[in-house]
Design a protein that fits this description.
single chain; 454 residues; mainly alpha; three-stranded antiparallel β-sheet; 65% helix; 4% strand; globular; disordered N terminus
């Protein structure tokens, strides 16, 4: 259990109910071809309607459920392209988790991972049924052990989508996994962020081979999985949230202290306070949780607790956003138009000028570069997740710290070169350069503000 002032021990909203219903999806007792009454499921699982609806909407976010206006619930699956789209988000999140854990890994982490690597090597040599769970266990490790709890939760969510999103997921059959096993283990032993980045890129190349091997079983061309576009994912990834007047009223009540940090609020009381029905409130609650402003309350009937985020959680958000920026940059580079490149050049010129004169609009411009890349990625999973994490960075602290790393010319030059050449590898190099500057930014902010713990 984490410190009360950190995000480590926070319970995701509706997590217990989500786990119960997901188990029914996994074991097949909740059938894809059956429409269920909402109250029928409440009786089956012993859950109150607001809690069950919240859990179902969490399942809907990853494409595993849908609630219609008549309160009928259907459990759904993903098409192959949408599934592949989410799987590339998984690959990027693995890198974020590895970057966070490698420098602080302890001997117990190394020993546990050595066991997993040994099991995976044995399974690869035997080429049997144990290969799939053994390889995926090496990915689970990073989700479970990363010190950045929010990244860990997102990675767990994408792993759930990857494992259970298809009617039948192709098992892992690629036996040449030694490059991943050796490089990831080495990154833990060395405690090096740079080694973790390299190992994560090895995993990305290995994932391509898994998707290529999976294409025949899924009935699609390999390129449809390697470069997913046009996926039927319009209702995933918090898509039911809207920035309307009700949203700004709820968010404003958190920002101005009307809803007080450390206080619990029943969902029923919030629907009355803001005069919105529960089904419209729940997407706001889920988005506010992702933004770090709410967590699950202790009331099993459905309540939320207003959080008091710390600088450490802000720093974790920076780390995650940098990883998402790299994902978006890599995926959008091949599809940039000449107008896109010119628009990016204008942003980079603005950043150079603002950095030179130490203009405090510089912070917003660096964030706008991230938003620019996110908007242009064809991968909806990456785009939507990045948009929410940008909002988390903006609102997780009362006053977001300004960036004082004025000289980031290495990043600016490299990302411009990447855009001109439409080159994902140079885009990665640019994002790694920016990450070093933001590591210094985090150190600077800790020195200025401490932890901001209550």
């Amino acid at each position: 259990m984490g410190d009360a002032n950190s995000g480590e021990g926070r319970r995701p909203v509706f997590d217990d109910a989500f786990t119960i219903v997901l188990a029914g999806v996994r074991d097949g007792t909740l059938r894809e071809d059956t429409a269920y009454e909402l109250l029928e499921l409440c009786e089956r699982f012993g859950l109150h309607p607001p809690v069950l609806e919240g859990a179902l909407q969490r399942l809907a976010d990853i494409g595993l459920a849908r609630i219609d206006p008549a309160d009928l619930v259907r459990f759904t699956k993903l098409d192959a392209v949408t599934w592949a789209e989410g799987s590339w988000l998984l690959v990027g999140l693995v890198e974020v988790a590895m970057r966070a854990l490698a420098p602080v890994a302890d001997d117990a982490d190394v020993a546990r991972y050595e066991e997993l690597v040994t099991a995976a090597r044995r399974a690869a040599a035997e080429r049997g049924d144990e290969l799939d769970p053994a390889v995926l266990a090496t990915v689970d490790f990073w989700a479970e052990r990363t010190p950045e709890s929010f990244t860990g939760r997102l990675l767990v969510r994408t792993l759930q989508q990857m494992r259970y999103g298809l009617p039948v997921r192709p098992v892992w059959t690629v036996t040449d996994v030694e490059s991943w096993l050796a490089s990831s283990l080495q990154s833990l032993r060395l405690r090096q962020t740079s080694s973790a980045q390299r190992a994560a890129h090895v995993f990305g190349r290995l994932w391509r081979r898994y998707l290529e091997a999976s294409a025949p079983a899924l009935g699609v061309a390999p390129d449809a999985l390697l470069h997913p576009a046009g996926a039927a994912s319009g209702d995933l990834y918090w898509a039911d949230w809207r920035a309307d007047d009700d949203w700004f009223e709820v968010l404003g009540s958190l920002r101005d202290g009307t809803l007080r940090p450390g206080h619990e609020y029943p969902l029923r009381a919030l629907t009355a306070r803001f005069r919105v029905p529960l089904r419209r409130l729940l997407p706001m609650i889920r988005r506010l949780e992702v933004m770090g402003l709410l967590e699950a309350g202790p009331d099993r009937d459905g309540s939320v607790l207003v959080t008091a985020p710390t600088v450490d959680e802000w720093a974790e958000t920076i780390s995650l956003l940098l990883g998402l920026q790299e994902m978006c940059a890599r995926s959008c580079m091949p599809t940039l138009t000449d107008d896109d490149v010119e628009g990016l050049r204008s942003l980079l010129l603005r950043a150079r000028r603002e950095g030179r004169v130490r203009d405090y609009a510089y912070t917003s411009t660096l964030l706008e570069i991230t938003r620019f890349l996110a908007v242009r990625t064809p991968n909806r999973a990456m785009r939507q997740t990045t948009t929410v994490v940008i909002a988390r960075l903006a609102y997780i602290l009362p006053e977001p710290p300004t960036v004082r790393q004025w000289q980031v010319e290495d990043f600016l030059q490299l990302i411009e070169e990447a855009a001109e050449a439409r080159d994902p590898e140079t885009a990665s190099e640019a994002c790694h350069a920016l990450a070093l500057h933001f590591d210094a930014h985090v150190v600077d902010v800790h020195a200025r503000y401490g932890t901001m713990e209550s």
